[in-house]
Write a structure and sequence with these properties.
mainly alpha, 14 helices
Length: 276
C-alpha cells in the first residue's frame, strides 16, 4: 500500500512539474518533443529522498547544486515541490525566482517574458517573507533582480517603483553599515549604466556610512576622471589614500597601485583651498 501511495505521489509531482514548466515557457500548444526536453527521472528523485518529505533546506540545497551544474529543469522541479509543501519559506521563493530568471533569457524569446513574470512573483514573495530568510542579504538581492528584470522588460513604471523601494529601505535602516551597503549597490547599479552623477552621490553615501570607504572613494575618482574633473579626482584620491581596506583581497593591491600612480600623474593639479 505504501509503495502504491509513493508511486501515486511521484506521478502527481511529475504532472505538476510539467504543468509548471509549460506555464513558465508560455507555450500554449506544446508538442511531444517539447515535453521530452523537460522530463525528469522520477526514479532518481525518489532515490535521493527515499520518497518521504524532507525539511525545506534539503530541497533548497539540492536545487542549488542543480543550478550550479546548469540543470535548470531539475532545479525548477525541486523548487516547485518545495513551495508546494513549504509555501511560507522565503528562501524557497527566492531560489524559485532565481531559477525563473535564469530560464527567462531574452524577453523576445518564446516564453521569456512569461518566465520573468513568474520570477517577479517569486521575488516579491521572498521580499514579503524576508524576516524568514536564512541569509538577510537575499532581500536586497531580490530587489536588484527585480530592477534588472524590469529593465529587460522595459517596464519603466515598475522599475522606478523598485528604485524608490530600495532607496526607502536604505533611508529607513538604522544600522549604518547596512545603509552603506545598500547605497554601494545602488552606486554600482548606476555606474554600470553610465549614470555618473547618481553613482557619485551613492558612493559618497556609502563612504559616509562607513561601508567599503576606500573602494567607494576610488570608484568616485574614476567617474570624476571620465568627467575630466581632475581637481575632484585628485581630492577624492587623496582622501582614499588615508583609508585601508577592510578585507584582504587580490584586487585591493591593484587599487592601491592605481591610487599611487594616479596621484603621481595628478601632482601638478592644484586643489583650491576651501573657504570656511
Amino acid at each position: 500500500m505504501k509503495r502504491i501511495f509513493l508511486i501515486f505521489n511521484i506521478l502527481v509531482l511529475s504532472t505538476l512539474y510539467v504543468y509548471a514548466q509549460g506555464q513558465s515557457l508560455n507555450i500554449p500548444n506544446r508538442t511531444a518533443d517539447t515535453v521530452r526536453t523537460v522530463t525528469i527521472d522520477t526514479n532518481m528523485y525518489s532515490s535521493l529522498f527515499n520518497g518521504k518529505l524532507e525539511p525545506a533546506w534539503v530541497y533548497i540545497g539540492e536545487a542549488k547544486r542543480a543550478i550550479y551544474n546548469g540543470d535548470i529543469p531539475y532545479a525548477l522541479y525541486i523548487m516547485n515541490k518545495t513551495v508546494m509543501y513549504y509555501p511560507n519559506n522565503a528562501d524557497a521563493h527566492y531560489f524559485l525566482g532565481l531559477i525563473y530568471e535564469k530560464e527567462g533569457g531574452s524577453p523576445a524569446e518564446q516564453g521569456g517574458a512569461a518566465s520573468y513574470r513568474l520570477a517577479i512573483e517569486e521575488y516579491r514573495k521572498a521580499i514579503n517573507l524576508a524576516t524568514n530568510l536564512t541569509i538577510p542579504a537575499y532581500k536586497l538581492d531580490a530587489y536588484f533582480s527585480l530592477l534588472y528584470i524590469y529593465e529587460k522588460l522595459i517596464d519603466e513604471n515598475n522599475y522606478a517603483n523598485i528604485e524608490k523601494e530600495i532607496i526607502a529601505m536604505a533611508e529607513n535602516t538604522y544600522v549604518t553599515k547596512e545603509k552603506g551597503r545598500i547605497y554601494f549597490r545602488l552606486a554600482e547599479h548606476y555606474g554600470n549604466r553610465n549614470r555618473g552623477t547618481a553613482a557619485i552621490d551613492y558612493y559618497r553615501q556609502s563612504y559616509l556610512n562607513g561601508y567599503r570607504q576606500k573602494l567607494s572613494l576610488f570608484r568616485m575618482s574614476l567617474i570624476y576622471r571620465r568627467m575630466r574633473n581632475y581637481v575632484q579626482e585628485k581630492e577624492t584620491l587623496t582622501l582614499a589614500s588615508k583609508y585601508s581596506f577592510d578585507n584582504v583581497e587580490p584586487s585591493n593591491f591593484e587599487v592601491e597601485k592605481a591610487i599611487v600612480q594616479r596621484l603621481e600623474a595628478l601632482k601638478n593639479v592644484r586643489i583650491p583651498k576651501k573657504l570656511n
